[in-house]
Amino acid sequence: MLCPRCDGQGTVHEVRIRLNGEIARLCDECEALWREGTEVSASSVVDFSTYVRPLGLRGLFEEVEILPGPIQC
Ligand SMILES: [Zn+2]
Predict the structure, then answer these.
(1) What is the pLDDT of residues 25-71, one digit of tens each?
(2) CA-CA distances (angstroms) from residue 38 to 19, 26, 73?
(3) What's the 33 CA to ligand 1 centre distance in angstroms?
(4) Chain CA centroid to CA 45, Å
(5) Distance of alpha carbon 50 from alpha carbon 44, whole angstroms
(6) 55 C-alpha to center of ligand 1: Å?
(7) Is 66 helix (H, G, I), strand (E, B) or coil?
(8) Backbone region of residue 65 per phi and psi (left: phi > 0; alpha: psi in -120 to 50; beta: other values)
(9) CA of 5 to the centre of ligand 1 (A)
(10) pTM for the whole thing?
(11) What are phi and psi of 20, to 5 degrees?
(12) Residue 54 CA to ligand 1 centre (angstroms)
């Protein structure tokens, strides 16, 4: 699906954070992140780097695994 924060510039992928196996949705353009179970909307977004910093990560795409298949909304 297209990203609601960057107006369709990016695509939202389902990803798994490699460190802890957590599933989230991540925009490949603006690094918007939605936690699993959160509606993908412009108001519920968090920044990837902000979200993973407490885990000791830097917010790099290498730190997640992009999962195949469509996103269920
Ligand atoms: Zn985006």
Answers:
(1) 999 999 999 999 999 999 999 999 999 999 999 999 999 999 987 77
(2) 20, 12, 10
(3) 9
(4) 9
(5) 14
(6) 22
(7) strand
(8) beta
(9) 5
(10) 0.90
(11) -125, 0
(12) 22
